[in-house]
Amino acid sequence: MSVQNPASVQAAKPAEDISGDEASISSARLAQANINPETGLATDYLNHFNEAIMLLEMVSSCPECLQDFLAWQPMSYSEHFSASRFKDRQIAITAYNSADPAARHSLDSIADTMTAVLEATRGAMRSGLPPSGMQMLASRAVAWLKPLIARAGAAINGETGIDAAHPAVPQAVVDGLLKH
Asked: Which of 41, 43, 90, 154 is at a distance of 20 to 30 A from 79, taking alpha carbons?
């Protein structure tokens, strides 16, 4: 099962030819591509994590979704856009490479934390937990991930109200997730 956001994923088209760096891409063009012109980052990357969260939410009511969740693979920002059908994927990659370093570091740190939670959850679910244990673990993982998605969105949008620069350390999040 592959879930895609129809609003942000278009039919595969050749990537627009982008030469130079993000500075040569106008703010208007970035905004048109759904990329924050201030940070150079796109929220479309969060779809990669939202897919895994949706699958975790469905595990209790649709056990066959477990296999789809277990098949989920982590992707970096550039990997996500390279593999996507997002029509402005090349602009997104180019803008990311020239993005505000602080915003990019915040997003990457949060993405690393979300990836660590998802990989630990997948590992635990492969260990033969009973269905009730899987449901509890899935719920706990979702509870950890949703605030991280909000922090990632804040980093992408350059919001300062959420401390996106200091997400929980990945190992501490994983330890807390698996503690009980």
From this structure: 154
